Amino acid sequence: MSDPQDMPSLSEAQMEIMNIVWDRPDTTLGEIWLELHSKRSIARNTIQTLLSRLVDKGWLVYRAEGKIFHYRAAVPREKTMTHVVNRLVETAFNGSAEGLVMALLDGQDLDADEAQRIRALIDRAQAGQK
Amino acid sequence: MSDPQDMPSLSEAQMEIMNIVWDRPDTTLGEIWLELHSKRSIARNTIQTLLSRLVDKGWLVYRAEGKIFHYRAAVPREKTMTHVVNRLVETAFNGSAEGLVMALLDGQDLDADEAQRIRALIDRAQAGQK
DNA sequence: TTCTTACACCTACAGTTGTAGGTGTATTCT
DNA sequence: AGAATACACCTACAACTGTAGGTGTAAGAA
What we know:
Chain A has helices at about 10-25, 30-35, 45-55, 75-90, 95-105, 110-125; strands spanning about 60-65, 70-75. With about 130 residues, chain A is mainly alpha-helical. Chain A has two domains: about 5-75, Winged helix-like DNA-binding domain superfamily/Winged helix DNA-binding domain (Arc Repressor Mutant, subunit A, Orthogonal Bundle); about 95-125. In chain A, strands 1-2 form a two-stranded antiparallel ribbon. In chain A, helix 2 crosses helix 3 (about 45-55). Chains A and B meet through helix 1, helix 4, helix 5 and helix 6 of A and helix 1, helix 4, helix 5 and helix 6 of B. Chain A binds a DNA duplex (30 and 30 nucleotides) through helix 3.
């Protein structure tokens, strides 16, 4: 299983594809295209290229069934997201998680439930450290 | 004053430059180069190009003093960071701030002070909504 | 005065990325 | 059988990005 740290970074369009594949392991070009095409005009070939390059980069693997490729992510979602956020903290926030949270809160309207869940996450993270 | 939403996104290298300029308004090519060069081998011309392109993209403005350009950010840091984080929440976390925080906590070891400060940030954000 | 340094600018290259037309082949539909 | 559909693959283009050599000019140092 690959490590996100050893792989090229993901652009927004690539991340979009990855999220679809994480949501639906073994998905196919056709399925991905149907989903994205329902949101915006995009050529099937564009998706094809994105998939092909993600395979080249090591982010996706596939299993051929007949002539159809079924794609799976080569890296777990959680591991990738952690890596992505860490990179952002390091490169944009000079290592400050607090800085990231501040920017997050500036731009989001948290409802009470969500705020509570986030507090619980922090508490759990803190508890896990003892 | 420009709006980050109307401008091309920033790459990691560009963000690095922006952070230096936000830290030191009116800075010059030479100063930026000295700072980065102390961390790693990089040609002055590379910085020059990064600066020039950031100006082209609208992220930096400059004032010529003699033949030396003094660069300033065209967008406040806070506004940019909020935008950057929002983009990440939208594109990688399907709009879930909680998802981002979970990934953040997975990858960071919060000390007690920091956790407390983050809780306070959340409380303040919540209070500000009433 | 000559040499050195610094600068903005010009130029170039290679890699990356999003976009998509086109093709041969196989399968399915009419 | 012919037409339509789907696929992986080939190909192409333009824009973006990081990297950096080179140049004319001005200012400072020797």
